[in-house]
Amino acid sequence: MNRNGQTVVGPPPGERAIVWSGFPVAGAVAGWVATLVAGWVASLPWAPFQGPFRLLASVADRPLTAVVAVAVGALAGLVLAFVAESEYVIVTVDRDEITVARGDSSQTVPRASVHAVFVDQKDLVVLGPNTEELVRRGGSLPKVARLAAVFRTYGYPWRPDGDPYRDHYRRWVEDSPDLPASINALLKARARALEKRDRADAADLRRELVRLGIVVRDQKDRQYWRRTRSTSGRPSRAEP
Question: Model's pTM, two decimal places?
Answer without folding.
Answer: 0.78
